[in-house]
Amino acid sequence: MTLVLFSLGVYTAATGSGLACQAQWPLCSDQLIPALTINPDFIEWFHRVWAMVTGFLMVGVVGWTWLGSGFERRTKLAATLAVVILPVQITVGAITVTLGGLIPGGYTVSTHAAHLIGALSIFTLLGLATIWGGGRGNARLLRAAAGVAVAGIVASALFSRAVPFLTYAPPAQAAFYITGLAGHLGLVATVAYATEAVRGGHDGLDAGTAATVRALAAGSMAALVATLLLGRDLVLYTATWQGINLAALGIAVALAAGAAWTLRGTDEVRDGSVPIGGD
């Protein structure tokens, strides 16, 4: 739900629908529910409704982690922090669509940047809550996470504004964030599972290798976040910025591929199906 919400928000902004609804919030053109036809008012309203439903589900996740059994403290804190950020995210979202309405000058680069960073923070925290809530990882999950990271980043490159392969139209922008965030989630999982391996070890995976994988994945994540930020109109997108964007995308792919490559070659040992030493 949060992944779809993120891409809906990007599509809403890219189509200019964020300036619809007569710059009103929470009403839309003096209505609680606008005409249910595909127009800018409906796109903006639908984004708000999806956000509301997602917010209630997030509260439910927090309740589940605290009232359920077997969840670690870190799982509870990640889910709770995501909900703590939520009111701020809602407030910033309201500001971004009230250009000349309730809050003059709301439709600015700074508020858009804050809204994007808030959404990414919530998505990351929910990802961590899901990963940690599933119990301890293992070498197989670590390799799978690295594979998802590489696939997501490479797929995002097809839609990125840094690569002139497709026109960076609103659908392409939404697709860029869906694939890019999938890659980001893969990197989050890679860092989380590698950290576990550094601290306690996984079958057939030594702490040194795990630390290398973690460092590569963390570097890839930083570069990927830079491309996610540059995917919005936060800077005047000149040829120089396009070059920086392309470099960040290349670094993200290279480091993620390096993490996956580091985990290659001893799959059977890492899964525990072949004991170390051949005994």
From TrEMBL:
The main location class comes to: membrane
Q: How does it sit in the membrane?
A: Multi-pass membrane protein
Gene Ontology process terms (BP): heme A biosynthetic process
Q: Which GO terms describe its molecular function?
A: metal ion binding; oxidoreductase activity
Quote the subcellular location field of this record.
Answer: Membrane
InterPro entries under this entry? COX15/CtaA_fam, COX15/CtaA_HemeA_synthase
Pathway membership, UniProt: Porphyrin-containing compound metabolism
Keyword terms of this UniProt record: Cell membrane, Disulfide bond, Heme biosynthesis, Iron, Membrane, Metal-binding, Oxidoreductase, Transmembrane, Transmembrane helix
Superkingdom of origin organism: Archaea
Q: Which residues cross the membrane?
A: 46-67, 79-103, 115-134, 141-162, 174-195, 207-231, 243-263
According to the UniProt record, one GO cellular component term is:
membrane
Q: Name it.
A: Cytochrome oxidase assembly
Q: Record the organism.
A: Halorubrum distributum JCM 9100
